Amino acid sequence: MQTASAPREVLLVRQVFETWWIGIPPSFEETFVQEGSYCHAWDHPRSVSLTSTTVRDGDGPVKADAILAAMPPPPAPRVDRLPDGLTGWGAFIDTEEGARAPRAITGILAVDGRVLLATITADDLEWARGIWLTIRHREAPRPSRRAQTWNRAPGRPG
Fold first, then answer.
1. Distance between CA atoms of residues 146 and 143, nearest Å
2. C-beta separation of 152 from 82 below 8 A
């Protein structure tokens, strides 16, 4: 006799920043604050908060391992997996009074020159872990030479 497993929640893949993507339920409300590069999505008992920044020094983009060395994890139990192809850390934490749920996964994911800070709050930490694992990074598209030429002011050298 076969038993049916519980249906999985449908997720929409959202591009939340120039190079960062995540899966969130379509029922979530969303807001994006341009200043500070902050994205927040939520329903009653759950939330996803993301902040993205670029990290450069005089030599260009800071290497991912240097970013992570400067931003160590808190003294909390670690999430057992990172999203595919990314380096960083995730930790299970207790949330502050007034949060949507008493527990969360918080973490940092880094690639050379970019860092994503994520906090996924939920009563169901397996759900939060599943959302954590949907995070992806894709390189920003480079403008084509044709696009650069087209955007140039008429009569001005490129």
1. 8
2. no
